[in-house]
Design brief:
By secondary structure, the chain is mostly helical. Helices cover 39% and strands 6% of the residues. It has a domain of 116 residues: 3-Layer(aba) Sandwich (Rossmann fold).
Length: 201
């Protein structure tokens, strides 16, 4: 093709080849039937569906020639090239490749022959769970007024308690001792015999 002065673009993927065809609108497409992602037969039909005047040539090996001829008829290809491709092969087929573009009878059966090409319907998804109720904004509640006495108690600090002096401490010990002794006498009575001899005055 370069020898004929043509600029070429190579694409090894059937699906991408269709996208590149739509983008570039080339004067001729030479393609194999064995392409990844999309069969060459389907890709050729997709191209003819996009542009009915697309000029397509099928490339095949000797063993796949019969299948390639069927695909060429279905897609309305302008020729079938058998590998190995040489300049002499192109020269022999050039006139037919540049001739009239046949009809593509396979276009009418495209959806029936290859239903997997159709975009599958998206499965129905379950409904979304209900959204949570929005959290209410914080409301500032007014505080009830305190009674005057309590307000004064909050405002005024109690004066610290005065420490007991020596006299106060001695008086406290006497009171505690008297209370303990009185409690003992109340419970057990006054002892008749003392363990010690009381002093005589």
């Amino acid at each position: 093709m370069k020898h004929q002065g043509w600029r070429t673009e190579i694409c090894g993927d059937g699906d991408k080849a269709v996208d590149e065809f739509v983008r570039l609108r080339p004067d001729m497409v030479i393609m194999s039937l064995d392409l990844p992602s999309m069969d060459g037969h389907i890709a050729a039909l997709e191209m003819r569906e996009t542009d009915y005047s697309a000029r397509i040539t099928i490339v095949t090996s000797r063993t796949g020639k019969e299948k390639a001829e069927d695909a060429a008829y279905s897609t309305g290809a302008v020729g079938v090239l058998v590998t190995p491709l040489t300049q002499s092969v192109f020269d022999e087929q050039w006139d037919s490749m540049m001739g009239d573009i046949p009809n593509a009878p396979g276009l009418s059966d495209l959806d029936e022959l290859y239903p997997e090409v159709e975009e599958s319907e998206m499965p129905l998804l379950p409904p979304m769970p209900p959204m949570m109720a929005p959290v209410p904004e914080a409301v500032e509640m007014p505080l009830a007024p305190l009674p005057e006495g309590e307000e004064a108690g909050l405002a005024e600090e109690k004066p610290p308690r005065k420490k007991l002096g020596w006299f106060g401490r001695i008086l406290l010990l006497i009171i505690i001792g008297t209370a303990v002794g009185g409690a003992y006498v109340a419970m057990y009575g006054f002892p008749e015999e003392l363990p010690f001899e009381p002093p005589s005055f």
